[in-house]
Structure formats: structure tokens, C-alpha cells
Amino acid sequence: MPAKNNPRPTPGTTDKQLIALLALLSENPMLVISGEKIAKEIGVTRSTVWRWITRLRGLGVRVKGHPNSGYHIERVPDVLVPDLLRRQLTGTAFGKRILHFFKVDSTNRVALEAGQQGDPHGTLVIAEEQSAGRGRTGRAWHSEKGSGIYLSILLRPTLTPVQAPALTLAAGLAVYDAVAEQSGLKPDIRWPNDVMLNGKKLSGILTEMYAEPDRIKFVVVGIGINVNHAKMPAELSSMATSMRMETGHVHPRIELAVRLLRRFETYYNQLVTEGPAPIVARFTAVSSYAKGRRIRVATGQGTFIGTTAGLDPSGLLCITRDDGRTETVLAGDISEASDAAHH
Ligand code: BT5
Hey, which of 130, 131, 141, 202 would you mutate to test ligand 1's pocket, going by the most ligand atoms within 8 Å of its Cβ? Predict the structure, then answer.
């Protein structure tokens, strides 16, 4: 599909010129740049520059200086600036179109809409904060401002709907690899969509698709990762964590996002060319939940306890019940069997 030269602006996305200003300041963090120079470079008036600097400050970016002295950025802000991201994603299918929001209800909601409006394969929707981030089956995803990665990828894959579950596994593996490389820690994956650090949930994936019985029209893979949260809200603190909480220091989100998208592209291409088998094999190899684990499974139909018995060829989880019967689970929540008493 040809790239659109002049895509329509999406309501609420960060202004292109505000992004240009942020990119300019971020690339020259030590330099004081005069308001006049900025105005010239971006093509607006000095008073507009001043207005935007005020807006950036309001968004938590620490810009020093004033119209007469010039501006500089105190610390390169950890904002997922589309221009910087795009440059680091050259050569991949992602980033040709990036919709960036400082705040949005849900990046998956926006990406599904973009899919319906014909936006191209590889479109990214990114937010610094979500006011209604969503999990599966109507649950909420806590999306603290500036602390996590809240990202949705629009895909137009040549896959059948049956192959779609493998996409979630592929995204989980991409998060797994990116987090391992970035943190030096060893994550785990809890089927189907949770990446864990030290037994707590670090990341979740929400795959939503628009399909006909034999053909996927488009898929949105939504990924949330807790990166620099200093703590989790009380109701999540026993089961959720962040990379910062586990490593004791902050991590550059942009670097993590680039690793994640590069990894995801590799797995995605593998899935499209070879089918689910290699993804399923790798998932089975890295997930401590895939085989021989006593778990409790909650599905829409009910709850039972059993022992995991690997994945089937399309990536569904097989579980041997205590009476010997084997169940194949299409969608559900897995928890430790010993936790059963708490539910
Ligand atoms: C998920 O659902 O894990 C999918 C989360 C997907 C979030 C991304 S962010 C970008 C994109 N845009 C969206 O609107 N969503 C996607 P599920 O397996 O249903 O888990 C949800 C449960 O995880 C909640 O009920 C909480 O118990 C817990 N939870 C909520 N926020 C969390 C967080 N930040 N970290 C860890 N656990 C969380």
C-alpha cells in the first residue's frame, strides 16, 4: 500500500510542530537555542514558540530559559517522540505513520479506528498516558503518565483468523526479548499474554481483530509495559511490577520501544512465512508455564485445576486435568493452583 503523503490529522494527536520543537531541543540538549532560531527552523513565529514551550512545560518536559535568553532542555525528556522513534526504526515496516498522544483513552481504540479508515500496515499509535487503557474482557490497564510503554500496532497480515493467537504469542516473545536485553533480568511468559518479572506481571498484550471467517482484515496488537513506575497502585501491588522496581533504576523507554518493535518484526515475518510452529516452539522453550506446571484456569465457561501439557500447533494451551482428560484452552486466565483459595 503506498504511503500517504499528507495523512489527515487525527484528533488529539500531538501537533507535528510541537513534536518538531521537542525533537530539536532533545537533539541538542546542551545547547541554548534562541527563540528566533527555533522559530525559523520550524516555520512559526517567536510568540508561537513561547506558547509551545509553555505547553511542553505543562506536559512535564523541563525546558529552561525564556524568549530573550533562548531555550535549552534540562534533561533529554523520556518522551516517545515520533521523529526520534521513526529514525531508529528505518528499514522496518513500522513507523512510517506514527500517531502520538500525550494523553488518549486507549491506543487500541485509536488503532482500530485507524484500521477501519484504511491506515497502512505498520501504523503505530503511542501514548504517554491512557485514561481508559484496556485489558481483555473489559478489564482496565493502569497507564501512569510517562512511566510505561502504551503502544498499538496496526497490522494487515495475510493470516487466517485461526493463526491469530500466534500473533499474541509473537508479541509476548518480542516483549520478553526486549525486556531481557534491556534489564539484564530473566523474564517469564505466562500464557497467553503476560510477561512477568520475578513472579509479577510487567506487561500485557491485547490483540483485537477485524476479521471475516476466512480472512483477517486487520489486527491491532496492543502492548503495555511497566517501565519506570516507582510503585504500583495498592490494588495491583501484590501482582504487578515495573522494570524500575525490579532493577532499581530507570530505563529509556524509547530504546526499549525500538528493541521491542525490531524483535516483533522478526517474529511477525517468521509467522507470516513459516506459520506458527517456530513461534510456538520458542514460546514453549522460554515460558515456565508451558509444560508441567500446576495451574488454575479460568475461562468464560468456568474454572478448573490441572497441569500444563504444552501448546498445540496453533498456540492454544493444553492442560491435563486431574481425572486425566486433556483440555485445550483458547482464551483464559492462568494462575498458580495454590492461589485458588484466594479467589
Ligand atoms: C492485558 O489484559 O494484560 C492486556 C493489557 C494491554 C494494555 C495495552 S496498553 C496499549 C494498548 N491500549 C490499550 O487500551 N490496551 C493495550 P488482561 O490479561 O485482561 O489483564 C488485565 C489485568 O491486569 C487487570 O485486571 C489487572 O488485574 C492487571 N493490571 C492492570 N494494569 C496493570 C499494569 N499496569 N501492570 C500489571 N498488571 C496490570
Answer: 141
